[in-house]
## 1
Amino acid sequence: MPTSEQRVIVVGAGVVGLTCAIRLLEAGHRVDVVARDLPLETTSAIAAALWYPYRALPQDRVTAWSKAAYGAFEELAADERSGVRMLTGTEVLRDHQPDPWWRGAVPSLDRETSLPPGYADGWTFVAPVIDMPVHLRWLVARVEALGGTLTRMNLSSLPDDGTLVVNATGLGGRHFGADPSVHPVRGQVVVLEQVGLDRWTLDGSGLTYVVPRAAEIVVGGTDVEGEWSRTPDPAVAEEVLHRATALVPELEGARVLRHKVGLRPARPEVRIERVGEVIHCYGHGGAGVTLSWGCADDVVGLAGD
């Protein structure tokens, strides 16, 4: 069993690294988080962060991690400081389809009959929606309240002094995990003023989504394999806005607050495994937030091995 004597260094301060740190601290470990990018500088800060298993495999493990995280977010939603809200929304589909493969991760999912023109099917369910800048600050405060630390540090390699290390470096897994299968999938979003929207909407076929936060609305998105540029493209922004407004007409005329680009850390499968004194936890694709607490629980299990 873990004791307070075991020190763990978590490398990476996005949502995955911070949730791993919290679960490890709760289990009695001493935890220091080190990262080149502080939480609000990470891809996690840009995510629309609608709970939804996207670009992550294998399906069985992703469903289990997603279900565990759903439960954790449901509890956090009771504390408005966490930035988590449980909101009803609908995924619309161009064709009739069977239930999604991750159906077992949500408590209830209903077929939607009131659909926009051009859509043949859809399902409505309650999902966690996470305001990431708020949530990341909350996670940091939780790490510190539990006695953990967060330090900006640009490492050239993982620590190898015998300390247990969690490699939660996202795209950095290419370097820190010597893993060329990790690659970026570029996602561009537009953040709009809040116009009274309290439901999310998703069209997975064109990767169009409208995700309301308390004070703003995140619309997206794009899915560009192998693209490293983080510079927003004005033409892409215009096209994203056009798709989003066609899906949710209430957005017409909403003021644009900012443009953001994030690079999802994609991999053929999420990597969670222990190799010696390193626990690898990266490759979450477009589902880092969705899988976060579930993967963190597995990391705690590996830390006790």
## 2
Amino acid sequence: MMEFCFPYGKQQLTLQLEEQHIQGVLLSQIHHYKAAKGPAELVEDALKHPVGTLPLSQLAEGKKNIVVIASDHTRPVPSKVIIPAMLREIRKGSPDAHITILIATGCHRGTTQKELVEKFGPEIVASEDIEVHDCDRSPMVSIGTLPSGGDCAVNRLAVEADLLVSEGFIEPHFFAGFSGGRKSVLPGIASRSTVLANHCSEFIADPCSRTGILENNPIHKDMLWACKKARLAFIVNVVLNAEKEVIYAVAGDAEQAHQEGCRFLLSLCQVQSRAADIVISTNGGYPLDQNIYQAVKGMTAAEATVKPGGVIIMAAKSDDGHGGEHFYHQMADEKDIGKTLSLFLERGRNETQADQWQSQIFIRVLHRATVIYVSDAPDEMVRGLHMIPAHSLEAAMELAKDIVRKEDYTVTVIPDGVSVIVR
């Protein structure tokens, strides 16, 4: 027997499998990668050696109104390390500048006060000016037309800034190629209509809109355009291992520094597909597995290696429920997911509805395999989303074996589905 550990919320689940059934274990090198330096030192080094631009302190000179875009509560960005370092550099160059930390929620719910304290620490929350972006209610300014044809409207605070900078982290992203960099602007601080245009069904269906791909990716192209038009001048992005420890940091030009970070990540997390009847995946634990909506990301790693008609076992705590009313009802209100997909594909770029992209990718996964969902979410909710509920990996495996009906079934294990790029 072989024992495997899977991140689940802030804890872990274990599962023993017979070795003869194991087809492969898809684990990126980043999973247990340890850096020679601590997180603070890595960030400081990155700030001292920016890629493609002047140091942040020099960019801040003479600037009076500076906005720092920060990630929201759904991202494991170590803001307690990054933001203080960025603020020190900014104030080194412009001691009297007014600095606003703008939380890039995209279309997520607003970050709560408790979550802000957990993210930044009480000192920064008490002493800094923090604004939470709301894609529906925040004052917006149109900065032009996206390559996709949609209007690009972003938070007025960012547009009116003398200097716009951001923090973030880089990980594989299931349709933007990679997270980080330009995503701080779009979708981070964009209007809902702008995000919808960028996430249209045509772009989601494009074969280049996949994990680990930037070249010819139409979604990335839109995002990069928005980033440049909004004048995002400087980023600090990190890469994390499975323990959410900083193992790499890069700073500098929003495009060039991001590309360098993506190259580092790709060198560690690209793995070869090992086709199997049953594939077990996760969303990497907290905070990325708080809801079913986010868990679709980890399913796409399994999608890339499960045999057609096979079974995906997805373990995601989901104690925050489905994660989106639109997402839930798009899936739950229609029994025929093929009909739902056809409806999405008929819509034009400016007719995209909220969360349609997530449902579209989810349906693509469900067309390939049966999904057994191990979570704390209500069974009725899981069934409504066309999955089979389970409350342990052991129970899920028994269900999966009944579905594949093979004595010689094969299993591929993906301990962290959001940390690998499956080729």
## 3
Amino acid sequence: MKIRHLAVTVVLLGLQIPSFAQKVDVKKAFQHAATQTDLLLKEVEKAKDPKKPQLFSPRTIEDGHLKLVASRDWTSGFFPGVLWYLDEFYGTEHWKAAAKKFTADVEQEKNNGTTHDMGFKVYCSVGNGYRLTHDPHYRDVLVTAAKTLSTRFNPKTGVILSWDHSRDKWVNPVIIDNMMNLELLFEATKLTGDSSFYKIAVSHANTTMKNHFRADYSSYHVIDYDPQTGAVLKKNTHQGYSHESAWSRGQAWALYGYTMCYRYTKNPRYLAQAENVAKFILNHPNMPKDLVPYYDFDALGIPNEPRDASAAALISSALYELNTYSKARKDYRKKADQILESLSTKYTAPAGSSFGFILLHSTGSKPGNFEVDAPLNYADYYYLEALLRKKNLK
């Protein structure tokens, strides 16, 4: 059944590849994204359950149905972010109104101290809203969210606690994904002048650099710390092939995270870290020619392992920014362009399909056997971000 499904998918993609396939045209890519997102907005309304009004944000397709999640879900801010990126490109009231509507449903997370995913939820939604509108209400939400996130920082470990769950596996787990949430803290210092947010972000980045990376600059997924001494208890890779393997999206979080840290601090150590991670990713012998990685660079079944378009979109977006800082900028831009061309050629959903998601063939968790070869809202988010960054490069 899986082989038959794959064959049908290939045929459909072959027949309905968008017209911008052979060369990335940002305008046409956004036209395709707008068509799909308009469909997704309609599908969201169809999928809403009056008995579960808290479910509002489209995350993926699950068992043939559109899956909506509540604001507490770590992915809840990405679809509002997609809408803000469409507003940024088109500047129309249609997209702005939709972005404001979905962002409003995420704002309550500013007070949720039980999660480290404040950046993903609040910054990708409210942060983009503030960047584009300068609405003082959004500013207040961001500052409150940063204060809430700061409560998860432990001076003894030097890092922000990631998960409250899975205490049977870890005492004080910190995941590489957490690098992405530092942007909220850096921005909070810019907004308020309060350096405490900045100091927490730097401490987290420095400690992560020390403990999360191997000699080849690949990253573990989870580092478990002793909350009293800061000693490292375990080094695991929860969503990858094995503890010592290189989970692709984890490497992408690292690349994006340290590139972003350099933007705010201009610390050359962060730039060097980002470049070393980029080197590991781009030169890995198991990186496919189209530069859309398998879910894990070391997965045993390569080349018969699922790809992760979300990791590719992240890498592309990060490389466009790294291109503006690094002496190797031509190579980074060329690789980012190649990734976007691959995504727009082989990984976009045919217009009018897949409930309106933009990209196909992402992998949430292969070990967990969920969201494998599926559309994901964060893949769409970073894909549009990469397209905008390409557009804005001189």
## 4
Amino acid sequence: MIDKFRQVGSFKCLFPRGDRQDLDAVLLNTAGGVTGGDRFRLNVEAKSGTSLTLTTQACERAYKAKPSQTGKVRSQIKVRTGARVNWLPQETLLFNGSALDRRLVIDLEAKSHVLMVEPLVFGRPAMGEILNAIRLRDRIEIWQEKKVTFLDAISFSGNLHEHLDRPNIAQGAGAMALVVFASDMAEGQLSPICDMLPDTGGASLLQKNLLTVRLLAKNGYYLRQSLLPVLRQLNNNTLPRCWML
């Protein structure tokens, strides 16, 4: 049941009909992407005992921006006691010349759960695109009972292709993903997740209730091959239908 709902501008939210009691919400940017000067903001609250899955209709695109402009995306998710939120957006595709500044803050109360993924694809190699001039700031915070338990931040400006090509950075990877599972079930998922990861992936149990997974891949296609089994494992063998189209 939706208590309060408001949307403005090109940032929309759709609610597909289904046979499950849990609520699914699909985020849609009718502008087609994010470019310099854009401002997008999302505020979500899952009340006690509820379950919400948030995804995107398709890949988000970060387009070329003017040197003085940056596209900003701010997302804040509150998960009340005993609730669960699955934050499962599809890939963000970075174009050469893009300037993107994102921040995701997830605030968990006691006995709540969150599964989140943030996949990034670096350009379109099939189109001969090389990311030799981008600006990227990406920050993810997870708070549990008013304490920061996870913080991940990227800040880069310049030739990303050259940076990722270094052996000690990404050895030429064209895509990556971060998965975080904050739940009292996290510890039991470490072993099965490790068994399914490729050589370019790794999983860590940062706390008894906080599991993180990182993946690198040659491109978006190979990233999905590694990522989808992980998400299914952590989400009761289900994925939003948008991921399968």
